[in-house]
Protein backbone atom coordinates (compact mmCIF):
# COMPACT_ATOMS: atom_id res chain seq x y z
CA UNK A 1 0.00 0.00 0.00
CA UNK A 2 1.15 3.52 -0.57
CA UNK A 3 1.63 5.77 2.44
CA UNK A 4 -1.21 7.93 1.07
CA UNK A 5 -3.68 5.06 1.45
CA UNK A 6 -2.65 4.28 5.03
CA UNK A 7 -4.37 5.84 8.05
CA UNK A 8 -2.67 8.97 9.28
CA UNK A 9 -2.73 8.05 12.96
CA UNK A 10 -3.30 5.24 15.41
CA UNK A 11 -6.71 6.69 16.25
CA UNK A 12 -7.76 6.67 12.59
CA UNK A 13 -6.48 3.10 12.21
CA UNK A 14 -8.54 1.97 15.20
CA UNK A 15 -11.66 3.75 13.88
CA UNK A 16 -11.33 2.04 10.47
CA UNK A 17 -10.78 -1.37 12.06
CA UNK A 18 -13.65 -0.92 14.52
CA UNK A 19 -16.06 0.12 11.75
CA UNK A 20 -15.25 -2.89 9.59
CA UNK A 21 -15.18 -5.26 12.58
CA UNK A 22 -18.65 -4.08 13.61
CA UNK A 23 -19.98 -4.58 10.09
CA UNK A 24 -18.67 -8.11 9.69
CA UNK A 25 -19.80 -9.08 13.18
CA UNK A 26 -23.25 -7.63 12.53
CA UNK A 27 -23.48 -10.03 9.60
CA UNK A 28 -22.06 -12.97 11.58
CA UNK A 29 -24.48 -12.49 14.48
CA UNK A 30 -27.34 -13.23 12.11
CA UNK A 31 -25.90 -16.58 10.99
CA UNK A 32 -26.60 -19.74 13.01
CA UNK A 33 -23.64 -22.09 13.54
CA UNK A 34 -25.10 -24.81 11.30
CA UNK A 35 -25.18 -22.35 8.39
CA UNK A 36 -21.62 -21.21 9.15
CA UNK A 37 -20.39 -24.68 8.28
CA UNK A 38 -22.23 -25.01 4.95
CA UNK A 39 -19.87 -24.75 1.97
CA UNK A 40 -20.74 -22.38 -0.84
CA UNK A 41 -20.14 -22.77 -4.58
CA UNK A 42 -16.41 -22.06 -4.20
CA UNK A 43 -16.06 -24.76 -1.53
CA UNK A 44 -15.45 -22.42 1.39
CA UNK A 45 -17.93 -22.07 4.24
CA UNK A 46 -18.37 -18.96 6.38
CA UNK A 47 -16.36 -20.66 9.13
CA UNK A 48 -13.51 -21.11 6.63
CA UNK A 49 -13.54 -17.37 5.98
CA UNK A 50 -13.44 -16.71 9.74
CA UNK A 51 -10.47 -19.01 10.25
CA UNK A 52 -8.70 -17.46 7.26
CA UNK A 53 -9.13 -13.90 8.55
CA UNK A 54 -8.14 -14.97 12.05
CA UNK A 55 -4.99 -16.64 10.77
CA UNK A 56 -3.97 -13.54 8.81
CA UNK A 57 -4.48 -11.30 11.84
CA UNK A 58 -2.23 -13.64 13.83
CA UNK A 59 0.32 -13.53 11.00
CA UNK A 60 0.30 -9.72 11.07
CA UNK A 61 0.74 -9.60 14.85
CA UNK A 62 3.69 -11.99 14.64
CA UNK A 63 5.23 -10.02 11.77
CA UNK A 64 5.03 -6.73 13.65
CA UNK A 65 6.61 -8.41 16.69
CA UNK A 66 9.38 -9.92 14.55
CA UNK A 67 8.18 -13.47 15.29
CA UNK A 68 7.58 -16.37 12.91
CA UNK A 69 4.46 -15.71 10.89
CA UNK A 70 4.15 -19.36 9.89
CA UNK A 71 4.27 -20.47 13.54
CA UNK A 72 1.56 -17.93 14.36
CA UNK A 73 -0.60 -19.44 11.61
CA UNK A 74 0.19 -22.99 12.68
CA UNK A 75 1.87 -24.04 9.44
CA UNK A 76 5.37 -25.24 8.59
CA UNK A 77 8.01 -22.64 7.68
CA UNK A 78 7.62 -21.41 4.10
CA UNK A 79 10.22 -22.53 1.60
CA UNK A 80 10.76 -21.26 -1.92
CA UNK A 81 9.15 -18.42 -3.81
CA UNK A 82 6.17 -16.80 -2.10
CA UNK A 83 2.75 -17.81 -3.41
CA UNK A 84 -0.21 -16.28 -1.58
CA UNK A 85 -2.74 -18.70 -3.09
CA UNK A 86 -0.66 -21.71 -2.07
CA UNK A 87 -0.23 -20.27 1.43
CA UNK A 88 -3.97 -19.67 1.71
CA UNK A 89 -4.51 -23.30 0.70
CA UNK A 90 -2.24 -24.32 3.58
CA UNK A 91 -4.26 -22.16 5.96
CA UNK A 92 -7.49 -23.65 4.66
CA UNK A 93 -6.19 -27.19 5.19
CA UNK A 94 -4.89 -26.31 8.66
CA UNK A 95 -8.25 -24.97 9.83
CA UNK A 96 -10.76 -27.03 7.81
CA UNK A 97 -11.57 -29.25 10.78
CA UNK A 98 -12.68 -26.39 13.03
CA UNK A 99 -16.26 -26.35 14.13
CA UNK A 100 -18.30 -23.20 13.59
CA UNK A 101 -17.99 -22.32 17.28
CA UNK A 102 -14.23 -22.86 17.19
CA UNK A 103 -13.92 -20.67 14.08
CA UNK A 104 -15.93 -17.89 15.73
CA UNK A 105 -13.72 -18.09 18.84
CA UNK A 106 -10.50 -18.21 16.78
CA UNK A 107 -11.58 -15.15 14.79
CA UNK A 108 -12.44 -13.24 17.97
CA UNK A 109 -9.26 -14.24 19.81
CA UNK A 110 -7.13 -13.33 16.80
CA UNK A 111 -8.76 -9.93 16.64
CA UNK A 112 -8.35 -9.39 20.36
CA UNK A 113 -4.62 -10.08 19.93
CA UNK A 114 -4.41 -7.57 17.08
CA UNK A 115 -6.15 -4.87 19.09
CA UNK A 116 -3.90 -5.52 22.12
CA UNK A 117 -0.88 -5.10 19.85
CA UNK A 118 -2.17 -1.86 18.34
CA UNK A 119 -2.88 -0.57 21.84
CA UNK A 120 0.81 -1.04 22.69
CA UNK A 121 2.10 0.84 19.63
CA UNK A 122 2.50 4.57 19.15
CA UNK A 123 2.31 6.39 15.81
CA UNK A 124 6.07 6.30 15.25
CA UNK A 125 6.23 2.54 15.85
CA UNK A 126 3.28 2.03 13.50
CA UNK A 127 5.25 3.88 10.80
CA UNK A 128 8.53 2.08 11.56
CA UNK A 129 9.70 -0.77 9.36
CA UNK A 130 8.72 -4.29 10.29
CA UNK A 131 11.55 -6.24 11.94
CA UNK A 132 11.56 -8.98 9.28
CA UNK A 133 10.51 -6.88 6.28
CA UNK A 134 12.72 -3.78 5.94
CA UNK A 135 10.99 -1.12 3.87
CA UNK A 136 7.51 -2.20 4.90
CA UNK A 137 5.97 -0.21 7.75
CA UNK A 138 4.17 -2.03 10.55
CA UNK A 139 0.96 -0.16 9.76
CA UNK A 140 0.94 -1.57 6.23
CA UNK A 141 0.97 -5.14 7.55
CA UNK A 142 -1.75 -4.32 10.06
CA UNK A 143 -3.98 -2.58 7.52
CA UNK A 144 -3.58 -5.36 4.96
CA UNK A 145 -4.82 -7.92 7.45
CA UNK A 146 -7.64 -6.02 9.12
CA UNK A 147 -10.33 -3.69 7.77
CA UNK A 148 -9.85 -4.09 3.98
CA UNK A 149 -9.52 -7.85 4.52
CA UNK A 150 -12.68 -7.93 6.64
CA UNK A 151 -14.56 -5.90 4.03
CA UNK A 152 -13.41 -8.18 1.23
CA UNK A 153 -14.46 -11.32 3.08
CA UNK A 154 -17.74 -9.77 4.26
CA UNK A 155 -18.71 -9.32 0.60
CA UNK A 156 -17.71 -12.92 -0.16
CA UNK A 157 -19.66 -14.17 2.87
CA UNK A 158 -22.75 -12.23 1.76
CA UNK A 159 -22.45 -13.80 -1.69
CA UNK A 160 -21.92 -17.24 -0.20
CA UNK A 161 -24.99 -16.87 2.03
CA UNK A 162 -27.09 -15.77 -0.93
CA UNK A 163 -26.13 -18.99 -2.71
CA UNK A 164 -27.21 -21.30 0.13
Description of the structure:
The chain is globular. The chain is mainly α. The longest helix has 21 residues, at 100-120. Strand 1 (129-130) and strand 2 (133-137) form a beta hairpin. Helix 1 (10-29) packs parallel to helix 9 (147-163), helix 3 (46-65) crosses helix 5 and helix 3 packs antiparallel against helix 8 (138-144). The chain contains nine helices and two strands; from the N terminus they run αααααααββαα. It has helices at 10-29, 33-36, 46-65, 69-73, 84-95, 100-120, 123-127, 138-144, 147-163; strands spanning 129-130, 133-137. It has a two-stranded antiparallel sheet. It starts with 9 loop residues before the first helix and ends with a helix.
List keywords for this structure.
single chain; 164 residues; mainly alpha; 2 strands; 4% strand; two-stranded antiparallel ribbon
Compose a concise summary of this entry.
The protein is mainly alpha-helical and 164 residues long. It has helices spanning 10-29, 33-36, 46-65, 69-73, 84-95, 100-120, 123-127, 138-144, 147-163, and strands at 129-130, 133-137. The longest helix is centred in the last third of the chain and has 21 residues, at 100-120.
Amino acid sequence: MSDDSLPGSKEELIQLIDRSWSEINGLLESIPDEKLAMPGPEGWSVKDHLAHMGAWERIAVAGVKGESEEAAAGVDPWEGEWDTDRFNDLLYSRHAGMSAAEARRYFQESHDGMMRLIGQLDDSTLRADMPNEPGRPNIDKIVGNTYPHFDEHRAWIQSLLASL
